[in-house]
Amino acid sequence: MLKPILDTQAVSLKTLNTQHIMLWVLAALLPGVFVYAWFISPLVFFNIALAAVLAVVFEALALYWRGQAIHGGVQDGSIVVAAVLLALAVPPLLPFWQLAVGVFIMVMLGKQVYGGLGNNPFNPAMVGYAALLVSFPQTMTLWSAPDLLNQLTLGHLLNAKLSLDLLNPNLLIDWDGITRATPLEHLRTLKMQGLSVDQNLAQQQFISSGWVWTNLAFLLGGLLLLYRRIIQWHIPASVILSFALCSLLFSAQNVPWYLSVFSGALMLGAFFIATDPVTAASSNRGRLVFGAGIGALCFIIREFGGYPEGFAFAVLLMNLCVPLIDHIDMHWGTSA
Amino acid sequence: MTLPALVGLVVLLAALVFIGAALARLSRPINTEGHSGDEQLIEKVNNLLPQTQCAQCGHPGCRPYAYAIIKQREPINRCPPGGDRTIADLAELLGTTALPLDSSCGEQKPIQVAIIDESVCIGCTLCIHACPVDAIVGAGKLMHTVISDQCTGCELCLPPCPVDCIDLVSPATSTSDWQWPRPA
Amino acid sequence: MRVRNAWRKQFSAEKPRAPFSFHGGLKLDTSKRALTRFNSTGIKELPLPAKLVVPLIDYHKNNIEPLVNIQQTVSRGQIIAPGIISPAYGTVSVIEPCEFIHPGGLSVNSVVIDTHANNSENPPVSIPSAKAAQAMINSFAEQPIETLEQAALVGLGGAGFPTLHKIKSANNGIHTLIINAAECEPEIACDEALMLAEPEAIALGIETLVQLTQCQQCIIAIEDSKPLAQQQLSEAINTFDVNAAIMTIPTRYPTGAETTLIEVVTGKRLAYRNANSPTTKSQTTPSEHGIVCINIGTAHALWQMVERNQALDSRVVSLGGSNMRNPCNVRVRFGTPVNFVLSATDNTPDNAHTRIRAGGPLSGFDLHSLNAPITANTNCILAEAAFIETPAQPCIRCGQCADVCPVKLLPQQLHWYAQSEDHDKCAQLNLAACIECGCCDLVCPASIKLTETFRYAKSTARFLSEQNQKADEAEQRFKNREERLKQREADRKAAIEKRKQAVKSQDKKTNTDRIKAALERARTKQKSSKD
Ligand code: SF4
Ligand code: SF4
Ligand code: SF4
User: Fold this and answer.
1) What is the number of domains present in chain A?
2) Where among A179, A197, A230 does a domain terminate?
3) Do A235 and A273 lie in a common domain?
4) pLDDT digits (tens, 9 = 90+) for A81-129
5) Do residues A40 and A147 share a domain?
6) Domain ranges of chain C
7) Are residues A198 and A169 in the same domain?
8) CA-CA-CA-CA torsion sign (A126, C392, A13, B179)
9) A244 and A139, same structural domain?
10) Fewer CB within a 10 Å sphere, N or C end of chain B?
11) Which chain A residue has the Cα nearest residue C390?
12) Which of A130, A171, A168 lies closest to A305 in space, CA to CA?
């Protein structure tokens, strides 16, 4: 006769599931990816493809080892998003095997050891990135020179990428010819040498490097996510605001704040990395604190730290604070 | 040795002593507190016990068992009606590890209530005397009955009945204690 | 005689204030409602079935004892158990456990009434002139409020709380009377149908309520998705000079729920988690704030009581859902089995996979049996196709559930604790305030069964606390018994002791006597020998 189903919904009224969310995030990344490929390096396509495929394979493997349903675990697409973010964060010329190591660490140490999606305290992509940064400092700062892009064919670049010696990655064959420091690294080197930076020159360099355009493209994608209500405004807004405020007030470098906001990985980070719901604070008020912390830490690391870009560490440090933020927030009442 | 090194050593030692003392204090088992602490603890343990008063734990009721747990270090896994849930609660309260139920005391069963077959009952009043929670009413030579709302299902009235007219049945789910099933 | 206060006049003349808003909620697609068929069919009057089943259960889900016997003839409106009336004239054929509308398919002791073919139909309510109506209302309002008991009025919104208790529980007087004309769930359209069909009766019922409760203001809350019903009702209100103002509220699920409606109308939050101390429950009942919320269906029923002394024994039910062939609104006598309703409207499910639900698509539940009778709580019957549930994925902590929760709970946290059976933590997070609206369930991208878990956790917590209370009582009886046994033992000992004492003292006495006697004898012997 009747077969009652225990469900609050009579019919599936659902509009959005995890898979849709991840697809939207990937879609929103597209403009940024294309601008990045155009201005910085088309190699990014190879990196994205490699990272995504490897991530799925590793994830499937990990799920198999853990005795979980492979299909159900992979199909939500969250690991593909993480892989794409990692591929966008590393320099395009990073040797393939190093990228593979990064993806492996991301999947295993960043996600699966904690029990998979939803249980990881740290942003997996940033775990992979940080591991790569401390393990391969040389290659992790190899950025191809944008102004040479016209002269170099994709074949050249790929060749260069493949020619990195597996056993001795430090052996750089005429690398200087095709790589160039990013503006942020350039600033850092100058500062290390105690040289002051000419503002006009710095501005020009920032704009001509293409990073500003890339950041603007990621901003566009982020706005799409906001419009689709995939993410809330709290985290990106507070990241950007707190970073801008810090650089406005405390920056000793001769770069105006509105340029440093559009440099490095800030937009990518603010809209796509910090907003990872699993590792962010869960209430709106908590999200504001979380984002503000990331912005400030990112500024501190860029300005005073040993790395040119501090977004990954800022995110990881704030991930650490999330349980505390959530706890305090819960005991202060609900989010506004 | 230089002075700073000495100072450092002293500070380190002092810190170690302090931490050691603090840890020692914190790890002291709760049941070495004073007498009034014991009383309170017995009360708390008693509150966690199901109050079935079935004596399966080997004590004549829940409070005596609570007393024994605290005063005589009786194991906490001897209450079948409470089952694993009660053991877990007790372990948490007393800061010990939860043990599996001691099967020599009995098995955990679903909640049941006694029912007297009134056509067979001879009115001997033996069950009335056996019931630890006064859930049976009746008078000599007259039919007896169980107030099912007050019966704890302790089974103590079963053995004394000379005509074996008492049965345990699972109580009908009434609308007031129906529970939504647990989602998978 | 109760006079109308001047300020009340003032109030109704005043342009109603804009509604407040509430946290969260969802805009649902309400376009598929059964009302779309209203224009062709209106409210269908259902014939009386041969058998009516009246469950003997009160609002608190306790069984109640019937006041009638088997084979007794009952008249329509006769009280057959405290708070329950017979919905029709007939004979009590049997009193036995019958299935009723319950998510677990439980049975409850019910009075089964054989109706007779000569049962009168529901005559349509007659609408007197404005003056006559006022006179009727005035004389009705002068009676003691307990007369309402005969009307057996209960809320027709879905919870079925007795209206009389609601009014009486506001012992500090009623400040605001809210008439709930909001149905924000898709498919439910019974109130709207009633407003379109009999706006005058509703208006008069509202006026009666205003007089009865002596409230300071009365606000009728209607969603903006029902312009026609609103217009009809406001015309009726003007015709009869009713002291109530209409407030147009946005259509957002769950505005029709009591807590949210009160917030929308008055701006007062009754069930929210206390912002300063999450450990204390901040839930208060509306009547403590002098607020009473009454459904328009109940107002309509009240007018029937005033006009022809007819108790509440039928209601409008929306039939809808994707597998309902003839979605419509029907007036059903209480106690009518669901399958009678379906067959009388040519809606009998034609395939075995159809699920029949009672209540709306979000707040309702699947029925286990079609023999269950319609009661005052049944606002909607849905026929839906079976669908495959999406398996739950891990929570990604997106926070959407907290964003939509109308009572500002933290469903994600609650789910965590509810799953691990941490009922104390759930209580701290004020699980009791959850109105089980299903919003969080609907938005959760991981398809986690949040609302179901909360229903489960709430019922389990209630069950456990009942168990606890029972355990306490058992312990008390055990203690009393121990005391008694001890006392008895002590009494017995005392009695033995007393007897021993008595024996001893008696012994002593006799001994001395004997000695004395012996001495006496000896002495006399001595004397005699001396002599
Ligand atoms: S075994 Fe029986 S008497 Fe002993 S604690 Fe448990 S319920 Fe009480
Ligand atoms: S079901 Fe409960 S927790 Fe979920 S949104 Fe509704 S009120 Fe909030
Ligand atoms: S909506 Fe679902 S996935 Fe998102 S936080 Fe709530 S429970 Fe988790």
Assistant:
1) 2
2) A179
3) yes
4) 999 999 999 888 788 888 999 999 999 999 999 988 888 999 999 999 9
5) yes
6) 42-120+313-385, 130-308, 393-531
7) no
8) negative
9) no
10) N
11) A12
12) A130
ipTM: 0.79
Instruction: Quickly tell me which residue has 């493949």 as its tokens.
Output: A162
Could you give the domains of chain B?
Answer: 34-105 (1.10.15), 110-171 (3.30.70.20)
What count of other Cβ atoms lies within 10 Å of the Cβ of residue C116?
13
CB-CB: which of C276, C357, C446 is closest to A18?
C446
**Closest Cα to residue C380, out of C157, C162, C198?**
C157
Q: Does ligand 3 have an atom closer than 6 angstroms to the CB of C92?
A: no
Whole-number percent of chain C with pLDDT over 90: 8
Q: Does B36 touch chain C (CB under 8 A)?
A: no
Residues of B in contact with C471 (CB under 8 A): 50-51, 152
How many CB atoms are located within 10 Å of the residue C126 CB?
Answer: 9
Consecutive H or E run containing C239: helix C227-240
Nearest CA to ligand 3 atom 1: C444
Report the SS3 class of residue C317: strand
**CB distance from C15 to chain B under 8 Å?**
no
Q: Which domain holds residue A268?
A: 182-336
Does residue A8 sit in the same domain as residue A119?
yes
Structural tokens at position A288: 């504001």
Q: How many CB atoms lie within 10 A of CB C73?
A: 14
Mutate to test the pocket of ligand 3, among C396, C409, C417, C439 (most ligand atoms within 8 A of CB): C396
Whether A175 and A262 share a structural domain: no
Superfamily of domain C130-308: NADH-ubiquinone oxidoreductase 51kDa subunit (3.40.50.11540)
Question: For A236-291, what is each residue's pLDDT tens digit?
Answer: 999 999 999 988 888 776 667 777 788 778 899 999 999 998 999 888 889 999 99
C48 CB-near residues (< 8 Å, 6+ apart): C88, C115, C119, C333, C336
**Residues from chain B contacting residue A6 (CB–CB below 8 Å):** 180-181, 183
Q: How far apart are the first and last CA of chain C?
A: 117
Neighbours of A79 (CB within 10 A): 30
Average pLDDT over residues A148-165: 58
Q: Which of the two residues, A191 and C141, has the higher pLDDT score?
A: C141
The interaxial angle of helices C190-197 and C296-308, nearest 10 deg, is 40
Q: Which residues of A touch B178 (CB under 8 A)?
A: none
Question: Rounded CA gap, C149 and A289, in Å?
Answer: 56
User: A284, A335 in Cβ contact below 8 A?
Assistant: yes
pLDDT digits (tens, 9 = 90+) for B4-60: 888 889 999 999 999 988 888 776 655 444 556 778 888 888 888 888 888 888 888
CA angle B60, B62, B64 (to 5 degrees): 60
Is residue A149 domain-shared with residue A194, that is, in the same domain?
Answer: no
Give the residue among C268, C201, C194 at the shortest CA–CA distance from C42: C194
Position in ligand 3 atom list of the atom nearest CA C393: 3
- Cα radius of gyration rounded to whole Å, chain A: 21
- Close Cβ partners of C340 (under 8 Å, ≥ 6 residues apart): C46, C49
Same domain flag for A128 and A53: yes
CB C404 within 8 A of CB A13: no
φ, ψ (nearest 5 deg) of residue B103: -75, -10
The order of strands in the sheet holding C245-249 is C245-249, C217-223, C176-181, C291-295
Q: Which residues contact A208 (CB under 8 A, 6 or more apart)?
A: A146, A147
Instruction: Please give the C-alpha separations between residue C181 and each of A22, C135, C285, C327, in angstroms, as whole numbers.
Output: 40, 26, 20, 21
Last residue of a domain, one of A179, A209, A226: A179
- Among candidate residues C28, C427, C497, the one with its CA nearest the CA of residue C223: C28
- Tell me if chain A has a CB within 8 Å of the CB of B29: no
